[in-house]
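Troubleshooting log. The previous run stalled partway through. Resubmitting the same two chains, unchanged.
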Amino acid sequence: MRAYLDCYPCFFTQALRTSKMLNLDEKKTWEILNEVSLVIPEIPFGATPPEIGRKVYQIISKRTGLEDPFKEIKEKCTRQALSLFPELKKLINSSEDRLMTAIRLSIAGNVIDFGANADFDLKRDLETILSQGFAINHYPQFCKALAKAQNILYIADNAGETVFDRLLIEELNKPVIYVVRENPIINDATREDALDSGIDRVAQIISSGYDAPGNILKFCSEDFFNAFNSAPLIISKGQGNYEGLSDEDRPIFFLLKAKCQVVARDIGVERGSIILMKK
Amino acid sequence: MRAYLDCYPCFFTQALRTSKMLNLDEKKTWEILNEVSLVIPEIPFGATPPEIGRKVYQIISKRTGLEDPFKEIKEKCTRQALSLFPELKKLINSSEDRLMTAIRLSIAGNVIDFGANADFDLKRDLETILSQGFAINHYPQFCKALAKAQNILYIADNAGETVFDRLLIEELNKPVIYVVRENPIINDATREDALDSGIDRVAQIISSGYDAPGNILKFCSEDFFNAFNSAPLIISKGQGNYEGLSDEDRPIFFLLKAKCQVVARDIGVERGSIILMKK
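Second attempt completed without errors. Output:
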């Protein structure tokens, strides 16, 4: 999905929100906004939002000297999610359809986001999503594809959400390759975040070779490219990966909450909808 | 009031909204957003929102070749307001406090805005504002100042709102100089819009000599500057003029609806509040 023009104000909103979160003074924030302003016109028409978002957050890193500005937040989200793990596991154990419950939980974990919408409450949102109807639900197709697949490529989104992914991976009962970002970007999961969530106990972790907040194939490593092109079933989590991969012709199931109006419109659903959608 | 950093995303939102309103195609809109992006870093820290807004809307004019992109909209708003005029005049005639009712109506007219918030419904908003409590109400001070003043400088905001201003001017019972923008900018009132509203029947119309969507003294004409500095009582309508004049040490009464969060915070009220405030 290429960036819509409505994404433009949002890049500034994101830079501003992150600057506030980092308690940057006004002058520094002003410098960041101005650099974002200068960089945006260099981006060619038709670029995807993760490509632009990457540049925005790189400017913040560069200007603050913080390689991973969201490090503490990511660790906190992971700890919070891990503290819920036993309870969520019980929920799956006591549910009629373990896989469906695990999918719902995995989407619920997708509310942990400091890019598209930082205004979340994990416990409250969890309850909502567990009872929310899907706007698009390709669960039967997913079950069929899962039954046939020898292995699964699972493309991660955010740190903390990773714990919820772990719950789903445990229900897939297939070998899983779990794809993280090469370097820190917003609160997206890196190898370290995946390890903190215990993903290594349930999957092989690889990096995409790139650090946009959403995988963009042309920039990813050859290893990832090959894994992506040979996987019989791909699970793509979150908006960023949808934005990067929605035009790829592969057996992808997108699991996400449509947090922003632009993505919701692109998919053809209401904002706030939850989605299990086959490409 | 200098531009807050929260104003930055808003400039893009305004450029985007105006481009949509003008049915510009995506490529043209993209060009406009990119030019806005390049121009913003040239603006010195501490500039006021009208100064930046002026540049944004000038880019739209230049890129579309439309000297007055809001011309039709302004004419429509003025016609709509004029159609309400007899009814509103009756309302004043039947009210206990004619001046207060006229002030409320004049603030109600301030909802006509295509910059800060284009999502208004004149008839609905009129009713709301007529019964809404003031967040800041310096009416006693206003009455006292009015009684003493030999004449009044009345700084206009938007076309259509001008008709509501005419109602208030008729209640002031003093010679009034009515200040409009030198050239078209957003839907702000120019001399032509003031004439369309019949302002010439109740006041002398002068131009500020500048075309920012809010008066900024240092850019205005000497004539305006002199009128501003000698006026015993100044009525400043709307957010844009507040943004431009809030730091000036003159006997100004600001009449406005705080339509955006930034201005509301600067004044110290809730967004949506109505204000009659002495500087």
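Takeaways: The CA atoms of residues 21 and 70 of chain A lie 9 Å apart. The longest helix of chain A spans residues 71-93.
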